[in-house]
Write a structure and sequence with these properties.
alpha+beta; two-stranded antiparallel ribbon; binds zinc ion
Length: 116
Amino acid sequence: MISRAGGPGPRAHRGKHAFLRDLAYARQLADAAWREEGTQWVGEWHTHPSGDLIPSELDLRSYLRHLHDAELRLDRFVAVIVGLTPEAGVTAATWLIERKHFRLVPLAVTTRPPSD
Ligand SMILES: [Zn+2]
């Protein structure tokens, strides 16, 4: 179960085909989730303004870097891609990334207001 999803953070760099997270902000979110719920960081989400919900080559390279980062100790990486287009509105797909392959996984989404 995914219980939290954070925003990009105030010092993130966002471009049409690139994103550089605000690492200090991301670490703060992960630390708070661990402290308050005992949950761990398992992946990330981002938007595709084109509405395409398939991870790009750049996305996959980034996910594989996380999987090969020994410090993170991740066997799998969860990637949620959210499409935003005027025609389709908000759509989303969840991917499970492993070192040798990746696949689409069904994910039931329920939303609740932020707790703070
Ligand atoms: Zn992407």
